[in-house]
Write the C-alpha cells for this entry.
Amino acid sequence: MATRTQDEVIIDLITNILRSENKADALPGQVLRDVVVNANASEFERLYDQVETVRIAQSISNANLMTTNQMNNLVANFGIKRKPASKAIGTVTFSTPTVPPGVVRIPEGTKLGTSTASTTSEITFITTFEVRFDPALEGLLYNPDSGNYELQVDVIAEDPGEDGNVGPFTINNTQNSNLPFSVSNNNGTAGGSDQESNNDLAVRALNILLGSNVGTSTGYLGTVSGQDNVLGALIVGPGDPLMTRDGGQGGKVDAWMITSDAGIKELGPSNNPNLTIQNWNWNDQFTKSFTFNFPEKPVSTSAPITVRGTRGPDGEIIDVLLYESRDPAPTGVSYMDPSGTGYHYTVSLADDLETAHSVRADDKIIWSPNEMEYLRTFNASGTAFTGNTLDVSVTYSVDQTVVDVQSVLDAADQHIITADVLAKEAQKILIDVTMDVELEDSFKETTTTEQQTIANVEDAIISEINNTTLGNKIEASDLVQAAHNVEGVDNVILNSLRIIRRRSSLFDTVDQEITDDVSEDNQYFEASDIQVSSVI
C-alpha cells in the first residue's frame, strides 16, 4: 500500500467533491476547505503513516527502516535476541623507578583513563581485581629491561562499545594522584563491540529462519552465528577447496568463526592443576626431547604464553622466566646458553593440520633439552642445583568461544548423526602499516594538535583494515584515501607507504610486503602495528 501525503489527499478529496457538486467552493479560507477537506486529509495522512509503520515492522527486509525497538519486537517473535554491546578488556602495568616505603594497595575498581592526545575523548577503564605492591617482594617485581618495579592487572572498559578498543600505550592516566605509580598498557585492549545493528541482526535472523533444518549449511550457519562472541562465520562442507578432512568422501563439516577477544579465557595453575608440572626430572625428561600438550585447546595467540620455573630441586622458590625459541635473545640471563642463542622451549601450533584451530588441535610445547640444562646451573645464590627435578608452571589462554560452540554443535539435535562437525577459529592475518603524512599548517601549531591528528589518521587506517568479515580485501589506495579523509591531512607521501602481511610469530610464517591483498575465505584482516609520522 503506497503512502499518501496530506496534499495528495486534499487534491483527491476536492476532485471527488467537485465531481458531485461542480459549484462548490473549496478554496483555502472557505468552510468546505478548512473544516471538511483539511481536517479529514490530516487524519488520513496520519492513518497512512501508521499503516506504513506496521508494514515496515512486519518484514525483516525492512531492517534499515525500523527503530531498534521495532526490530527487537519482530525477531522476538522467533525467539531471537539482539546481541548486546560488549566491553573491551586488556592489561595495564603500574610501574615506579623506586620502591615505595610501604605496602601500596591498588584496589579493585580503580579507574584509569586514556589521554586525549591518544584518543578523541577519554576512555575510562576499571581494574578487575586488587593488587598490592609489597616492598618485601621487590626482587620479583623488578623488570631489568625497563629499570622499573612493575605490577600487572587486568582492566575492563567502563562503557561497552568499540571505542574501548584502544591501542598500546594509550591508557596512561591514573585518575588518582595518590598512587605513586605511572600506568600504561603495553598491548591494545580488545573485545569491545557495539550493539548489533539492525542490518546485522536481520542477516542473522534470516539465517536462523531459513536454516532451521538440522544438517543444512544454512542451519549450521544460523546456529554458529547466534552464539555469544561469534562475530562472523563460514560453513565449509564437502567439495569446498577448504575442506581437507574428508578425503573427498564427505561426512565432515568445518565451521570457521571470527571470535571476539571477550571469549578468551586465561588458564594457569590457579584454575587448572594440569598447568603445574611437579618434579620434572632432568635425567628422565629434560635431557630428552619432551612434549607437553596444552590441556585445553585451541590456544589463543591473542594473549601471551608464559612458562616459569617455580621451585628448584631442593624446594627453593626460584621463579625464573623460561624463554620461547622465537623470543628476542636475552642478555645477561645466567641460566641461558652463554652465546645468547639458546632457548628453553618452542610453542608448536600446527597451522596447517586438518584439526588446527579447534578443540582437537595439536597445540603443544616442545622442550629444548640441551638449553634446559643451563637452567639447572642457576640459583639465586649462584650455587648450582644439587638435585635433578624442577617444578614448572604454564600460563596461556584458550579461545573459549570455540570450545562453547563445539559443545553446541555436538548436541544430538544440532547435526546429522553421521556428520562430523568441527568448530574452528578463523585465521587472523595481521597487517602492519607505516605511512608519512604532511599536515596543514594550522594542525601543526601545537604538539598536542599534531599528535591528535596523527592519532586520528592511525584510527582511520585501523578502521579501514579491521573488518569482521571472512575473505575480505585490503588495498593500498583505500588506506591512502582513509588518511586523506582525516581533517588536517594535506598530503600522503605515497612512496612512504609500506604494508606488511603476517601471522602471529607462533605460526612460523614469512612476513610479506603487499600493496593489495585478499584473504582466504577462512581468514580475516586485523590491524596490528600502525605507525604514522608527520613530515615537513
Notes: The longest strand covers residues 489-502. Residues 268 and 395 are 4 Å apart (CA to CA). The chain has a mean pLDDT of 84.
